[in-house]
UniProtKB/TrEMBL annotation:
<feature type="signal peptide">
    <location>
        <begin position="1"/>
        <end position="25"/>
    </location>
</feature>
<dbReference type="Pfam" id="PF00431">
    <property type="entry name" value="CUB"/>
</dbReference>
<keyword id="KW-1015">Disulfide bond</keyword>
<dbReference type="InterPro" id="IPR000859">
    <property type="entry name" value="CUB_dom"/>
</dbReference>
<keyword id="KW-0732">Signal</keyword>
<protein>
    <submittedName>
        <fullName>Cubilin-like isoform X1</fullName>
    </submittedName>
</protein>
<dbReference type="InterPro" id="IPR035914">
    <property type="entry name" value="Sperma_CUB_dom_sf"/>
</dbReference>
<feature type="domain" description="CUB">
    <location>
        <begin position="133"/>
        <end position="243"/>
    </location>
</feature>
<keyword id="KW-0677">Repeat</keyword>
<feature type="domain" description="CUB">
    <location>
        <begin position="31"/>
        <end position="131"/>
    </location>
</feature>
């Protein structure tokens, strides 16, 4: 994250330096374009307080227009950016700092983008297309969201592509997920052994509760979303991080696969390791998922490990381990899932963290409700021996 913040502020400074010289003379012009082609753009521009802008669409076709605002942008204090469908109904009104977003215009005839200037500068730019609703993000980390769509007939399909650099994997966490109807599929590489990067990672079609985090074992992940336009839906907001390949993954824990991540040894600086371990639905009925802390050696107080009870970055926290935590503690998940994050800063390392995640037989209530019998004891012994991963 620290690296991302730096990158982001450098980008902002760069934008300001680049565009501030162009502003006054060209701003009025840039503000009054009528778009008549099937593709076009508003170049990324810093808009000084002063002129209001209106961009109009006057296309020869009646196809929907897909607008993609560029990462990252900001609408200044008192300013507002509004997208209006051809019937003059607002599709989206944006204020303040923004990550990126897609908007869909279904009535292109006389559709407009209006910018009401404010008391401080704004900067933004967009591209539009009439052929494809898509967004590609290739930053270290970013937030994506379902498109802004008008209430209309028909449906819209949008594709999101997340690209990370060669040393990382995209790890996606949903903060908002609220649909009444949609189809949504997430594709990527399902496991290190898979030969394809088009595996179905998760079919979220029809799901209404917040999904667990999703990781692709490749540098790309794509999300295919189809929304009916008949009623307004909140949709999704998700953020992704570029996580370290050496120590991140999502694993189903079977009967004989206790495992640990990340590798134990001298860990690197600037790691962002994320992992999720889960029991499948059958396993969950008979077993709890437990995590045993075998050993912990961290370089400084800024290297930390967070464990959540659940499958998401937004699940409730079980614990945070810092330097000085003693080994031996056992965590038990109430959800059959454990989510973890190991982050290291730019100095000092240690041997790391060594833990075992494994299914543990659940106590069964016998006829006498006071008598607890632990099932599968010999089985659990076997599990304890079934080893794992070389150091
Ligand atoms: C539309 O395309 C033509 C030819 O490619 C170009 O000259 C013109 O500037 C474009 N108009 C707009 C508003 O982008
Ligand atoms: C811009 O629009 C706002 C809101 O309609 C208005 O109050 C303001 O006077 C306009 N500014 C200019 C320079 O036209
Ligand atoms: C829209 O484009 C047509 C030509 O395709 C032109 O005749 C008309 O004047 C334009 N309308 C506006 C409002 O610019
Ligand atoms: C687009 O559709 C509207 C309403 O159906 C119609 O009035 C208009 O003539 C159409 N425009 C074009 C360019 O086909
Ligand atoms: C678009 O605007 C033009 C000019 O104001 C008007 O003649 C035309 O009827 C409008 N089209 C629609 C579909 O509202
Ligand atoms: C990432 O991998 C691609 C394809 O293998 C390669 O072309 C590219 O040079 C690599 N980039 C880096 C920074 O290693
Ligand atoms: C996802 O689930 C929906 C509904 O069950 C189904 O129609 C769709 O084909 C599935 N997608 C894939 C890629 O399997
Ligand atoms: C769950 O995992 C167990 C152990 O690996 C396996 O035997 C079982 O078939 C799995 N069930 C489902 C529904 O995947
Ligand atoms: C970790 O670093 C220490 C001190 O530099 C070194 O003695 C040890 O061999 C290293 N261990 C591994 C697993 O690399």
């Amino acid at each position: 994250m620290a690296g991302y913040e730096k990158f982001r502020s450098i980008t902002v400074v760069f934008l300001i330096l680049c565009v501030s010289r162009l502003i006054n003379a060209e701003e009025a012009d840039a503000c009054t374009t009528t778009f008549s082609n099937s593709t076009g753009s508003i170049p990324v521009t810093k808009f000084q307080p002063g002129i209001n802008c209106t961009w109009r669409f006057n296309l020869t076709s009646n196809a929907s227009i897909y607008i993609n605002f560029k990462h990252t942008f900001s609408i200044g204090l008192g300013a507002a950016l509004q997208i209006l469908n051809g019937d003059n109904k607002p599709i989206a009104t944006l204020t303040g700092p923004q990550d990126e977003f897609l908007a869909v215009i279904t009535k292109p005839d006389n559709a407009t983008i209006m910018f009401q200037n404010g008391n401080s500068p704004s900067y933004f730019g967009m591209t539009y297309s009439t052929t494809k609703c898509s967004q590609t993000v290739s930053w270290d980390a970013a937030t994506i969201r379902s498109p802004y769509v008008p209430v209309d007939s028909g449906s819209v399909s949008c594709q999101y592509t997340i690209k990370t650099d060669n040393a990382s994997f995209p790890f996606l966490s949903f903060s908002v997920f609220d649909f009444t109807k949609m189809t949504m599929e997430v594709f990527g590489k399902k496991s290190p052994a898979s030969s394809s990067s088009d595996d179905l990672l998760k079919n979220l079609t029809g799901q209404s509760s917040r999904p667990d985090d999703i990781m692709s074992f490749a540098n790309t992940m794509t999300i295919q979303l189809t929304l009916p336009l008949a009623q307004k839906q909140t949709g999704f907001v998700a953020s992704y991080a570029s996580v370290s390949q050496s120590c991140s993954g999502i694993y189903e824990i079977g009967e004989e696969t206790p495992f640990f991540i990340p590798p134990f040894g001298n860990y690197s600086n600037n790691l962002d390791c994320r992992g999720m371990a889960y029991l499948n639905d059958t396993m969950k009925q008979r077993f709890s998922l437990t995590l045993i802390l075998n050993s912990l050696d961290l370089g400084d107080d800024y290297d930390t490990i967070v464990v959540n009870d659940g499958g998401s970055r937004f699940s409730p926290a079980l614990t945070t381990w810092k330097r000085g935590t003693t080994a031996g503690s056992v965590l038990v998940s109430s959800t059959g899932k454990l989510w973890m994050m190991f982050k290291t800063d730019e100095t000092q390392t240690g041997r790391g963290v060594h833990f075992t995640v494994r299914p543990q037989g659940k106590p069964h209530v016998g006829r006498n409700a006071n008598l607890w019998i632990f099932c599968a004891n010999s089985f659990c012994d076997l599990l304890a021996l079934a080893y794992v991963q070389p150091i």
